[in-house]
Design a protein that fits this description.
Blueprint: E1 4-7, H1 9-25, H2 28-43, E2 66-70, E3 78-85, E4 88-96
Parallel strand pairs: 1-4
Antiparallel strand pairs: 2-3, 3-4
Length: 113
């Protein structure tokens, strides 16, 4: 089964903010490479998104959230937080892996289907 992957507003804002950080602290070229890599890695959730484990914060949420490590190189330093509803994967946020845990009030809830 192929899933549709949808970026929610917070995830889009996170990706844009992180790409700006890459451009300021590395280069515009590396920022573009990071951005392409992140989008490619998120698109991979079209296949077997259930294979990714539950996020550490899962018990705090009224719905199931999972995470996928993302980034460049062999040690990804970002994670995508997502939930699965029917045949749709909703990307809730893309954060540095070292950031504090998320809480339900930090994220927009996925649409109810």
């Amino acid at each position: 089964m192929t899933f549709e992957v949808i970026l929610l507003h917070q995830a889009e804002a996170d990706i844009e903010a992180n790409a700006r950080w890459w451009a300021l602290h590395h280069s515009v070229e590396q920022a573009a490479h990071w951005l392409d890599t992140i989008h490619h890695q998120l698109k991979s959730l079209e296949q077997f998104p259930e294979s990714h484990g539950l996020a550490a914060e899962n018990d705090e949420f009224p719905y199931e959230i999972r995470d996928k490590l993302l980034g460049l190189g062999s040690r990804p330093s970002y994670r995508a937080l997502f939930t699965i509803r029917d045949n749709t994967v909703y990307i809730l946020a893309v954060r540095r892996a070292a950031q504090d845990a998320v809480h339900p009030t930090d994220l927009d809830a996925p649409p109810i289907v």
